[in-house]
Amino acid sequence: MDVAYLRQLLEQVAEKKTNIDEALTELKKLPYEDIGYANIDQHRNLRTGQGEVIFGQGKTPEQIAGIVSHMRKGNKKILITRADEKDYEKVLEAAPDAVFEQEAGIIIAGGKTQPDPSRGRIAILTAGTSDIPVAQEAALTAEFFGNPVDRIFDVGVAGIHRLFDRMDRIMEADVIIVIAGMEGALASVVGGLVEVPVIAVPTSVGYGANFGGLAPLLSMLNCCANGIGVVNIDNGYGAACLATKICAKKVECTDGKC
Questions:
Q1: Residue 199 phi/psi, 5° resolution?
Q2: Which residues form the signal peptide (predicted)?
Q3: Burial of 34 (0-12, 13-18, 19+ CB in 10 A)
């Protein structure tokens, strides 16, 4: 259940529009709801600020739709990652307002979230066009959590001038996610140019010696530039979650005082 739903429930009790027993029935679903094949963490949003997200890979379309159906009452919006067209067709039965972003493999029940201007801006860079699916997973996840996102694609080190031409946009970001396959050099370059946190995402894009993303993963872990964190291979979702937590604590400063 998201915080807004719980607040609404408490307000309804206070205004005597909902009785205490009905409210207790809803609260009994916290901290999780056991539906047999899944334990839905209904308390995650209240606990961490980020609601329960469904990882679609390995689940059947029926299981995904069932989880959506149980989550739907207490969550206006639900994010499903690593999903496909068959998953989407089944989810539509439980959430007719769901949209499918095929390139990213993401389903969003409840429609897209409007960015919250009070949050920090996240710039998402890719080294190449082949890295865009992972970047879109990161971008759509970050936007789902309310972050303004700037997509800057195909600015890898093979043509470094492309990166420099976009430095004005990059410098405006509060957090930067750098997504690269091959040897993953872009993360180190960007980390040496900016003053904000950089989150590096290695991708499985590359020839044989890329080892399915292991080569850029090790390169990023060994970056000589400071202030770079690294998430797992192709983990655009994880990078967006980390960036969101950083942006959630952004404080506006006036006259040198925060």
A1: -110, 120
A2: none
A3: exposed
Q: pLDDT tens digits for 174-197?
A: 999 999 999 999 999 999 999 999
Look up residue 131 and give its DSSP letter.
G
Q: State pLDDT tens for residues 199-257.
A: 999 999 989 888 999 999 999 999 888 889 999 999 999 999 999 989 876 544 444 54
CA dist list (Å): 76 to 70, 109, 194, 200: 12, 8, 37, 31
Structure-block tokens of residue 90: 């089944």
**Ordered structural domains, the chain, with CATH:** 3-109 (no CATH), 122-248 (3.40.50.1970)
The residues, ordered by sequence, that sit 6+ positions from 257 with a Cβ below 8 Å of its Cβ are none
Question: Of the candidates 109, 114, 96, which has an alpha carbon nearest to the alpha carbon of residue 52?
Answer: 109
Q: Tokens 């996240």 sit at which residue?
A: 122
Give the tokens for residue 20.
Answer: 């205490």
